Amino acid sequence: MKISGIVSSGVFLGLIATALSMHAGAAPQALSTPAARELPPLELVQRIPVPDVSGRIDHFTVFPKARLLIFSALGNNTVEIANTFEDKVVQRLKGLNEPQGALYVPGFDKIFVANAGNRTVSIFDAKTFALRKTIELGEDPDNLRWDEASKRVFVGYGEDGTGAIATIDPATETHVGKDLNTAGGHPESFQLEKKGSRIFINVPSDGDSVEVIDRKDGKLTKWSLGGAKANFHMALDEDNHRLFVVTRRPPFLIVLDTQTGKEVARLPAVGASDDVYFDAERKRIYAIGGEGFIRVFQQNDPGHYQIKADIPTAVGVRTGLLVGNTLYAGVPAAGSEPAQLWAYAIPD
């Protein structure tokens, strides 16, 4: 074999080895495959029409066993009940007055609705949907929470100067115990400790702070939000001692240490937001905002957070509910389009 030109002995031997391997039928070296594209944290997979509903959509609850998603159509003076399996609204609760909070109570099969317009909480049978009782509380009943340990429903109500958290016994359907007073303002979203006795409360009219009330003795303390205002909603990561507060002026996600009340992190959030949820399995926070998107934050560890993605919705979408591997959002009617429920799947 004649070699033309100048070839080093090392290169020559390499060429011989390559030729021999090809002659022996050796498999060619596999090409490297590109890295798999990361899936978005939320994917729109379902749109459920909500006919004949106008105006603002407020807070949600769920009846898991029946696969019913229940939400307050505040601008329509109704509560809408959708079957997520059948993709349609199956029931409407009428006779309400500016319904804001809605709560399904397991074990009692009852639906509680807070009516801002007439100072009441309505109690419905979750099987027949018949109205069972109406309880008058005070001005502007709003958010509702269920406490499994005490078997009580907690309700925020009151106007500026008279804000409080009331307690209802779902068995007797009566207003019980002593109300827990805020520093004076109307309570918006609040969260109950499961392993403790505190309630964390957003009181937007109270300036730039979160109020903390001990259920045992009513003692109240305040945690500063460092100048951020209009804190309407919050979520709790109790295991890691973290409280997530979303403000509107300016839009921030503020993370507080529930052991000290001190700020841990602050990140830009979505504007006009009215619901935020913590996904404990994936360590994510979902803030639903009226600007037209859901901002997803990643908890890298309890002290560090980052913005992961912005998922498009529609302008005016401010509320929803996290249920298992799905985040639902309430979409108000716009133009010729009816109100809808949008379901976003969370990839495993």
Q: How would the blueprint of this fold be written?
A:
Blueprint: H1 9-23, E1 43-50, E2 60-63, E3 68-73, E4 78-83, E5 88-93, E6 99-105, E7 110-115, E8 120-125, E9 131-136, E10 144-147, E11 152-157, E12 164-169, E13 174-181, E14 190-192, E15 198-202, E16 209-214, E17 220-224, E18 229-237, E19 242-249, E20 251-257, E21 263-268, E22 273-279, E23 284-289, E24 293-301, E25 304-312, E26 320-323, E27 326-331, E28 339-345
Antiparallel strand pairs: 1-28, 2-3, 3-4, 4-5, 6-7, 7-8, 8-9, 10-11, 11-12, 12-13, 14-15, 15-16, 16-17, 18-19, 19-20, 20-21, 22-23, 23-24, 24-25, 26-27, 27-28
What would you say this structure looks like, in words?
The longest helix is centred in the first third of the chain and has 15 residues, at 9-23. The N and C termini lie far apart (60 Å). The model is unreliable at 1-28 (pLDDT under 50). A hairpin with a 4-residue loop joins β22 and β23 (284-289). The strands form seven sheets. The protein has a four-stranded antiparallel beta sheet with strand order 1-28-27-26, with no helix packed on it. Strands 2-3-4-5 form a four-stranded antiparallel beta sheet, with no helix packed on it. The chain has a four-stranded antiparallel beta sheet with strand order 6-7-8-9, with no helix packed on it. It is 4% helix and 51% strand. With 348 residues, the chain is mainly β.
